[in-house]
Amino acid sequence: MVNSPSEENRILQRDAEWSAIASEGRDVERIVSYWTDDAIVIPPGFAPVVGKEALREYVRSSLQIPGFRISWKSTDAQVSPDGKMAYLLARNTVTMQGEGGKPMTMTGRAVTIWRREEDEWRCAVDIWNDEPSV
Questions:
Q1: Residue 36 is inside which H or E element, if any?
Q2: What pLDDT is stored for residue 1 in this prediction?
Q3: Percent helix, strand and coil across the chain, each rounded to 5?
Q4: Cα–Cα distance for residue pair 13/134, rounded to 1 Å
């Protein structure tokens, strides 16, 4: 059995590191390294992106969008009793250049599923949708 609170903190810290690296938007390889080789990303309104090569291109093209910036904060982590899988709940923010060059910001909510690999936790499934209008 895994010490769940310790492992939950570890995965939340790893996810926060990933968000900071993604928010900097400079190192495609480092951003992609947080996904498993067979990861699937399901962005809202787009087809799923499957596997590291496709994810590398997805990240590269996203970072080329004028004004693009992404960040997120995960607040809830649940680790399986055997310590091999976990899921996180998060809120994210994506900013890019909108009409007339003005920044446009979208907020969303996300679920990520993580798998413990030999050396570290990596994200295997990443799905999000828009935050509901109030």
A1: strand 35-42
A2: 56
A3: 30, 45, 25
A4: 31
- Bridge-based pairing of strands 35-42 and 49-50 is antiparallel
Q: Tell me if 83 sits within 8 A of 2, measured CB to CB.
A: yes
Question: For the chain, what is the total number of helices (H) and then of strands (E)?
Answer: 3, 6
Domain membership flag for residue 134: no
Domain with residue 95: its CATH number is 3.10.450.50
**Could you tell me the pTM of the whole model?**
0.91
Kindly give, in sequence order, each residue whose CB lies less than 8 Å from that of residue 22, ignoring residues fewer than 6 positions away: 31, 70, 71, 72
Q: In which domain, by residue range, is 84 found? A: 4-129
Count up the domains in the chain and report the number: 1
Q: Is 105 part of any domain?
A: yes
Query: How high is the mean pLDDT of the chain?
Result: 94
79-128 tens-digit pLDDT:
999 999 999 999 999 999 988 889 999 999 999 999 999 879 999 999 99
